[in-house]
Amino acid sequence: MAAPTPRIPTTAGEGPMSYAIFQLARAHRARAAAMLREMDLHPGQELLLMQLLDRDGQTQSELLESVGLDHSTVSKSLRRMQDAGLLVREPAEHDRRVMVVHLTDKGRAMREPLAAMWRALEETSAQNLSAQQAEAFVRTAYAITDAITSRAVRREESE
């Protein structure tokens, strides 16, 4: 089935790939947000949960670095998640100023629902693609990500 040709604003015509990425990211984020709402989670909280499911007992700084979000967003998300009973934050033994984040039983129980959500989102996202197209897309997406982040790093280093 041929994909419909989107109407691209004339000013975005200088960057059709970038506009396509923007549209894709917006649609994907909206679908993921709807699925997360069904689980009583806000977007971004699933990323923190997945990091903690892989390695419980991380500091807030480690989580901040692993998900690539800003400090205030992570702090707000962790506070909401603590209020929802998914995790607890405690001062570290070595430095009481450092907060260590631990999952509760309720938080650990989110492993399978999160995995199921990501499977469903993957199936929806790839439903019009062959396996080869999906694999090529993943490689291409990471290549674009590397290009963007390496340019940002080079610019920061030159400043």
Defining traits:
159 residues; mainly alpha; three-stranded antiparallel sheet; 64% helix; 8% strand
Physical arrangement of strands within the biggest beta sheet: 1-3-2
Percentage of residues in strands = 5-15%
N- to C-terminal distance: 48 Å
The biggest sheet, with number of strands, parallel, antiparallel or mixed sense and barrel status, is: 3 strands, antiparallel
pLDDT average, as an integer?
Answer: 91
Query: How many strand units?
Result: 3
Number of helices: 7
**Weakly predicted, low-confidence segments:** none
Which class of secondary structure composition applies to the elements? mainly alpha
Q: Overall 3D geometry? A: globular
- What's the helix-strand series? HHEHHEEHHH
Helix content: 55-70%
What is the radius of gyration computed over CA atoms, rounded to a whole number of angstroms? 19 Å
Fold and architecture overview:
By secondary structure, the protein is mainly alpha-helical. Helices cover 64% and strands 8% of the residues. A 3-stranded antiparallel β-sheet has the order 1-3-2. Strand 2 and strand 3 form a beta hairpin. The protein is globular and about 55 Å long. It starts with 15 loop residues before the first helix and ends with a helix. The mean pLDDT is 91.
